[in-house]
Task: inverse folding
């Protein structure tokens, strides 16, 4: 069967008299829907959807799902936002009736098992991060950032330190960092990175003053580089009266090797929907829990899970210094179940292997690709690395061309044009889940494209060639989106 043949859109079948309905079709005894449903609940006119047979609908959606690229199709080296192995068995655990059937408004006496899972997960994550307490309310990494910065503000205000309105953020930071700080009302002071891609200590020194509320840092940073001066950075920020916020979306790089709390961070967020076995992408569902040092515990969002003297768990709402609620319940409970299963299944040594493999895989790929692409930083990377396609400029080839051509080779493109500090950037994160064979296949594709860039650049300019839509006008798609057929 020729799967490339043009297929009709579901709306193009319109006018057909087929139907997939299960309701009785016996016109001699039509069902009185008004009597069954109540006349107020009836539509004034039939819905404007095609009238199709069940198999047409099923085939339509199956075809569409084939056009999607996911981690089940192949490597997904999307730096910083990668999609890693998400064990399917965790889906079964999250779907166990005792978890899936529970209602968040049930009284705690009937949900002790679920609360115990949350309390245990909190203990495990506190141990992993080197912090004292956690909240599971934030629904995503960026939401965690917002919550952490609200805590930071509450702490400064509780000390009557009203001047602290500035958050220092390196120029390599993930875009959500300044966005979250701005949402809390902080002013952002961006500091440049040094030539080694790390925080420039002089720039930090210049930025610190008695208005500093804190520093937001990702470590390893978005270039995949570990801040070797992190203890010095932490000491200087603390001496200046600020707090340290750890963007832990990429904790898979240091899992069980180093802990943000030990590095001097006061607030940490994690992206459980990335590092702890839930698919990341498409905007959710996610979980971006926040961990804090003990002096920040009073400010955590309510409710906090607490236990009575006889060991019963309950949701404590009576916390006068709390910043309040940041979400209805506890993030996406299924994501928390998967995270707990992931921690138990791997254990301490398994999680250490996760970070070792994540770093080894990234370094292997970095070394193979350095033969053909510009490498802006010499330092061996951690979980991800950034290449530049600048060396193909003489051939008129950009990072976007390379990324689009990768689709023809059957791979998901890497993150491109981020971080902004590197020209023609391509940010690659293979994750610990890829084996040598798939890393080699990915490397071969990159190297073949690098060769094409010099010999047949037009192939890259017009890529991808095997998708229903090749190169949309991305600007128009964003400014004038056509959302209906
Ligand atoms: C370093 C970093 N910070 C923050 C985020 C934001 O997380 P989210 O997309 O869950 O809001 C991401 C996303 O992966 C990230 O990579």
Result:
């Amino acid at each position: 069967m020729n799967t490339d043949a043009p297929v009709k859109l579901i709306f193009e079948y319109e006018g057909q008299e087929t139907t997939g309905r299960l309701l009785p079709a016996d016109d001699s005894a039509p069902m009185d829907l008004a009597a069954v449903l109540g006349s107020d609940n009836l539509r004034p006119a039939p819905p404007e959807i095609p009238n199709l047979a069940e198999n047409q609908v099923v085939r339509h959606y199956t075809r569409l799902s084939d056009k999607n690229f996911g981690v089940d199709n192949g490597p997904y080296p999307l730096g910083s936002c990668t999609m890693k192995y998400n064990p399917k068995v965790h889906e079964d655990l999250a779907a166990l009736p005792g978890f899936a059937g529970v209602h968040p408004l049930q009284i705690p006496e009937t949900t002790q098992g679920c609360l115990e899972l949350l309390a245990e997960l909190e203990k495990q994550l506190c141990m992993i991060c080197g912090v004292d307490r956690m909240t599971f309310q934030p629904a995503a990494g960026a939401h965690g950032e917002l919550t952490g910065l609200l805590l930071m503000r509450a702490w400064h205000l509780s000390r009557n330190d009203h001047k602290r309105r500035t958050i220092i953020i390196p120029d390599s930071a993930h875009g959500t960092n300044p966005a979250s700080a701005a949402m809390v009302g902080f002013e952002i002071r961006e500091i440049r990175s040094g030539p080694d891609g790390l925080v420039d200590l002089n720039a930090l020194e210049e930025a610190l003053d008695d208005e500093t509320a804190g520093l937001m840092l990702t470590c390893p940073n978005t270039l995949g580089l570990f801040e070797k001066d992190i203890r010095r950075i932490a000491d200087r920020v603390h001496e200046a009266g600020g707090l340290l916020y750890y963007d832990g979306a990429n904790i898979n790089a240091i899992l069980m090797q180093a802990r943000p709390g030990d590095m001097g961070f006061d607030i940490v967020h994690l992206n459980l929907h990335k590092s702890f076995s839930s698919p990341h992408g498409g905007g959710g569902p996610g979980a971006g829990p926040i961990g804090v040092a003990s002096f920040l515990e009073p400010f955590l969002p309510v409710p906090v899970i607490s236990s009575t003297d006889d060991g019963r768990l309950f949701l404590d709402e009576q916390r006068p210094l709390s910043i309040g609620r940041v979400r209805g319940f506890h993030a996406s409970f299924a994501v928390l179940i998967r995270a707990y299963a992931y921690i138990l299944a791997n254990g301490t040594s398994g999680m250490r292997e996760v970070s070792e493999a994540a770093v080894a895989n990234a370094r292997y790929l970095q070394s193979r690709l350095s033969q053909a692409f510009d490498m802006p930083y010499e330092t061996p990377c951690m979980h991800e690395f950034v290449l530049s396609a600048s060396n193909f400029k003489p051939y008129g080839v950009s990072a976007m061309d390379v990324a689009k051509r990768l689709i023809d080779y059957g791979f998901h493109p890497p993150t491109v044009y981020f971080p902004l500090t590197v020209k023609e950037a391509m940010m690659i994160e293979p994750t610990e889940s890829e084996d040598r064979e798939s890393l080699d296949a990915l490397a071969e594709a990159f190297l073949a494209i690098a060769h094409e860039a010099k010999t047949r650049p037009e192939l890259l300019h017009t890529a991808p060639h095997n998708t229903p839509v090749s190169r949309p006008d991305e600007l128009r798609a964003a400014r004038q989106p056509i959302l209906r057929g």
About this structure: Residues 352-479 form a domain with the Aspartate Aminotransferase, domain 1 fold (CATH 3.90.1150.10). DSSP finds 16 helices and twelve strands in the chain. The radius of gyration is 26 Å. The mean pLDDT is 92.
